[in-house]
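pinging the channel bc i need a second pair of eyes. not urgent but kinda urgent?? the chain im working w is below, pasted from the shared doc
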Amino acid sequence: MAKRPRRQPTAKDIGDRIIDATLELIVVHGWSPLPLSQIARSTGLSLEDLYATFPSKAAILSAYFRRVDTMMASAIAPEGEPDATARDRVFEVVMARFDALAPQKEAVRTIVRDLRCDPAASLCAAPTLRRSVRWMLECADLSSTGIKGLLRVNGLAVIYLRAFGVWLRDDSDDMAKTMASLDNQLARAENFIRRSRLFEGTRSHADISSSAI
């Protein structure tokens, strides 16, 4: 019987290999000192081939967080709970994102630590954060477009970053501290939302009356 030809790696396969190798190297060497040449060597790629996929470390980081966005979305029930408020849906989405980040938590901690010491790199990472926040809103069935969408993005970004800071320090199995922080942030936002009706959902009139993020 003739052997079946080996499947050639796709662009996604190569991208995932680079992302995975980078995350492993970050834990050992840090984010800022890590050169692209070392990432290329660890994946068996030439520097030219690495550049063809990711021309910078920022591009690798952006691709990693895009992968997290996809994992987060896949963990959300397509139809969700019919009686869930916008606040409930956002809570579920943000916690699903933390679950997706959890396997690479040490690498994420190192990236955050190094970015805090590199303002220029932090500015470069800002668009990636905004993209992810917009995606979180859409996964929670809340529009991220228009003036209301812009305010939603800004509001959720603050809530997410505060909960994210707690998550980085929370090593418990049940993430109780993270959930408590997120719930508290959402409760505080709900008071504002009830006055402004800024975060009206798209599912029903009943949802609009109690919507929150």
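so The first helix runs from residue 11 to 29. and The CA atoms of residues 146 and 192 lie 19 Å apart. — does that match what u expected or am i reading it wrong
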